[in-house]
TrEMBL record:
Alphabetized InterPro entries for the sequence: THDP-binding, Transketolase_N
Protein name listed in UniProt: Transketolase
Cofactor(s) of this protein: thiamine diphosphate
Pfam family, one: Transketolase_N
Keyword annotations of the record: Thiamine pyrophosphate
Gene3D superfamilies, A to Z: 3.40.50.970
Family: Belongs to the transketolase family.
Species for this entry: Anaerosacchariphilus polymeriproducens
Transketolase N-terminal domain span: 7-260
Amino acid sequence: MNQLDLKRIANEVRKGIVTSVYSAQAGHPGGALSSAEIFTYLYFQEMNIDPKNPKMEDRDRFVLSKGHVAPGLYAALANRGYFPVEDLKTLRKLGSYLQGHPDMKRIPGVDMSSGSLGQGISAAIGMALAAKLDEKDYRVYTLVGDGEIQEGQIWEAAMFAGFRKLDNLVVIIDNNGLQIGGNIDEVCSPYPIDKKFEAFNFHTITVDGHDFDQLKDAFAQARVIKGRPTAIIAKTIKGKGVSFMENQVSWHGAAPNEEQYIKAMADLEKAGEVLC
């Protein structure tokens, strides 16, 4: 798939994020929007998956450690064909299978229920270790937040992954610089992120998380690294694609009203027209 096609899909993912959060009048649009290209590249280019067979034994696995940005994952899954795009409008509604955090028991394509920050990476590492023990060649990917890596369990897990030389594991850090309490370097700075992961025997790569060429090169590099896991530090913009949400911490966990929804969708429609 070429870069233009991926950009178009990422824009559709963003539309799904905004629509679902607006419909729910609840959710976390900022970090979901910053991760749109990451979700798109994983599900449309990188991972060995089959929407018609979500439990395929040798599929690659993905764990959304920062589970509150589920609207981004759901939009990617829907556009990939796991379930109808129209269902995104049922986000957080009573009886819907698309709740505020991913549920592996109810949602096709979700490999791990998540949402307790700091814990998803441990589940991903368990999957990667299982692949090694079973002599399987599937790969495991996990997306964590840059605020989330303030959690101590992240580093306990990283120590284990590096020690066990889990080269089938890729940890992606959505480094948008903002968390619910403000700038990450003012709340509790995790910098330098690359040096910390390197200390735990990770190969680290820093990229523009909105650039598909850079993402392609990073994931390709991760595939040839042997004897250690990879951490991809993706520099992103919180709220990316919606003019009034970009780099605004207030959109970490807020839903747009009708006027804001119309403006947001107009921004994304305009972006889509440029890609045609």
